[in-house]
Design brief:
The protein is α+β, with helices and mostly antiparallel strands. The protein contains 10 helices and 11 strands. The chain has a 5-stranded mixed β-sheet with strand order 6-8-9-11-10. A 4-stranded antiparallel β-sheet has the order 2-1-4-3. The two termini are 51 Å apart.
C-alpha cells in the first residue's frame, strides 16, 4: 500500500494536520493574549510612574531635582512591590505652554497628548501647577518584544509539527502492527483455510476481541462447509438410489422378452421411482433457491391460513383414513395474514404431510390455528413411536431421519422440515420443534 491508500499514512496525516492546526491556533492565542497583556501592563506602569514622579517632585522649583524624584519614585515602587516600574519608561517635563523643560531620553513622549502626536507612544501626564510631567513607553519597544515572541512561536510550530508527524508515524505503526501480523497469519493459513486458527499477536483488548471474532467466523465457516459437504453427499446418495432402481429395472426388463403384464408392472414401479426423483429434485431446487434469497422473490398478499389448512387436510383425507389416524383440528375465526402465499402454503403442506406420514397407525394428529397479538400461531402435533434419541432440532438438518427404514417406507426424502425451517427463517417466522408426552409438536408463528 502506498500513499493515502495506507491506513498508517492517513492516520499520520490526520494526526499531523490536527496537531498543526491546534498548535497554530494555540500560538496565535498566546501571541494575542501576550499583546493584550503587554499593552495593558505598559499602560498601567506609565500611569503609576507619572503619579509617583509628580508626587515625589511635588513643590520643587527646578528641573534639577527631577532625577532625585525619579530615584525616590523607584524606591517607593519597590516598596509597593513594583521593582520594574520605571523600566523602558521615558519621562519629560513641560511648561503649560508646551515648552520642554527636561527629558530623560530622546525621543521623549510628546505634549499635549493628542491622538495624532502620541501614536507611537503609550503615555500619561500629571499636571503640577505650571508644569506637566509626562511618562511614556514607545510602542516599537513593545512590538519588538511581541515580534520576538512571534518568531519563537513560529519556530516552535515549524519544528514541533515534523516531530509530531514522525512520532505519529511510529506510534500508528506500532498500533497497527498486530493487524499486519494477523494478515501474515491469514496468508500463511490460506493453503488450508478450513483448519486455520488465528493467534492474538498482542494482549490489547481490541486485538483480542478482533481475533476472537475472526476465529468464531472461521469456526462457523468450517461448520457451514461441513454441513454443505454432508448435504451434497446426502443429496448425491438420495439421487443415486432412485436412479439405480430405475436403471436396474430397465436392465431386468430388457434382459429377455416380457409379457404385457410384466411390462405394466415394471412401468408402475418406474413411475413411482420417477415421482420420488422428481419430488426430491424439486425440493433440492426449492432449498437452493431459499438459500440464495434474503427475503424471497415472492410478493406478499392477504391469505387465509385456515382455508389453506382445510384444503390440505382434504387432500390428506384418504391417507388419514388409510392409516386410521384420529384427527383433531381447531381453526381460529381470524386467521388471515399478509405473507407470500407459496411460502405459507409450503410450510403448512410440509408440516401436515409430515405429521400424517410419521404418525403411527391409529395415532393422533392435531392441527390448530390460534390468533395471537403478533399474528397467527400454527401448531401441528402427532403421536410418535418413541422418545427421540437426539435433539429435535437435528430433524431440521437436510436428509436427517430418526429411523431411516421407517422413512423409506413412508416415502419421505428428509427435506420437508429443512425447507419449512428455511422458509420461516427467510420470512422471520419463529419455528420450534419439541417433544413431550409421546407427542411431537411443530409450532410456527406467522407474524402479522
Amino acid at each position: 500500500m502506498t500513499g493515502l491508500k495506507s491506513l498508517r499514512a492517513r492516520m499520520t496525516l490526520g494526526f499531523t494536520t490536527s496537531f498543526f492546526a491546534l498548535v497554530t491556533a494555540t500560538s496565535l492565542g498566546v501571541w494575542w493574549f501576550s499583546r493584550q497583556t503587554t499593552f495593558k501592563d505598559a499602560s498601567t506602569r506609565v500611569n503609576s510612574t507619572v503619579r509617583f514622579i509628580a508626587h515625589e517632585w511635588g513643590e520643587a522649583d527646578t528641573t534639577a531635582e527631577i532625577p532625585d524624584a525619579i530615584e525616590h519614585s523607584r524606591l517607593d515602587a519597590e516598596l509597593h512591590g513594583l521593582p520594574n516600574l520605571l523600566d523602558d519608561i521615558s519621562l519629560a517635563v513641560f511648561r503649560n505652554d508646551g515648552k520642554l523643560l527636561w527629558a530623560s531620553t530622546s525621543p521623549h513622549p510628546p505634549w499635549p497628548l493628542s491622538d495624532r502626536s502620541s501614536t507611537g507612544w503609550i503615555a500619561a501626564a500629571e499636571r503640577e501647577r505650571t508644569r506637566v510631567v509626562v511618562a511614556g513607553i514607545e510602542k516599537r519597544l513593545l512590538y519588538s518584544h511581541l515580534h520576538s515572541l512571534a518568531v519563537f512561536l513560529t519556530a516552535f510550530v515549524l519544528l514541533s509539527t515534523p516531530l509530531a508527524a514522525v512520532g505519529a508515524w511510529v506510534l500508528v505503526g506500532r498500533t497497527l502492527r498486530p493487524i499486519g501480523e494477523l494478515a501474515d497469519q491469514a496468508d500463511r493459513a490460506s493453503a488450508n483455510a478450513l483448519s486455520a486458527q488465528l493467534v492474538a499477536p498482542s494482549e490489547d483488548a481490541e486485538v483480542q476481541h478482533l481475533v476472537a471474532t475472526l476465529n468464531d467466523f472461521l469456526d462457523q465457516l468450517r461448520a457451514d462447509t461441513r454441513l454443505r459437504e454432508q448435504f451434497y453427499a446426502a443429496a448425491a446418495h438420495e439421487l443415486r438410489t432412485p436412479l439405480a432402481v430405475i436403471s436396474a429395472s430397465i436392465e431386468v426388463v430388457l434382459s429377455r422378452p416380457r409379457t404385457s403384464e410384466e411390462y405394466q408392472e415394471t412401468l408402475v414401479d418406474l413411475r413411482g421411482q420417477f415421482q420420488r426423483l422428481k419430488r426430491l429434485t424439486e425440493d433440492l431446487l426449492t432449498l437452493n433457491r431459499l438459500n440464495l434469497t434474503a427475503q424471497g422473490a415472492e410478493e406478499s398478499e392477504e391469505i387465509d391460513l385456515a382455508d389453506i389448512c382445510q384444503r390440505l387436510l382434504e387432500l390428506q383425507a384418504a391417507r388419514i383414513a388409510e392409516r386410521q389416524l384420529v384427527l383433531n383440528s381447531s381453526f381460529a375465526d381470524e386467521a388471515e395474514i399478509r405473507a407470500p402465499l407459496p411460502h405459507a402454503f409450503a410450510v403448512i403442506q410440509n408440516l401436515i404431510e409430515n405429521t400424517v406420514r410419521y404418525a403411527p397407525i391409529g395415532g393422533q394428529v392435531s392441527i390448530s390455528l390460534t390468533s395471537v397479538p403478533d399474528g397467527v400461531k400454527l401448531v401441528v402435533s402427532n403421536t410418535f413411536y418413541s422418545e427421540p434419541t437426539v435433539d429435535c432440532q437435528r430433524w431440521l438438518e437436510p436428509f436427517y431421519r430418526e429411523d431411516a427404514s421407517r422413512s423409506s417406507a413412508t416415502g419421505g426424502n428428509g427435506l420437508g422440515l429443512t425447507i419449512s425451517h428455511r422458509i420461516t427463517e427467510v420470512n422471520g417466522w419463529p419455528f420450534t420443534l419439541s417433544y413431550s408426552n409421546s407427542t411431537i409438536h411443530a409450532e410456527v408463528l406467522f407474524m402479522a
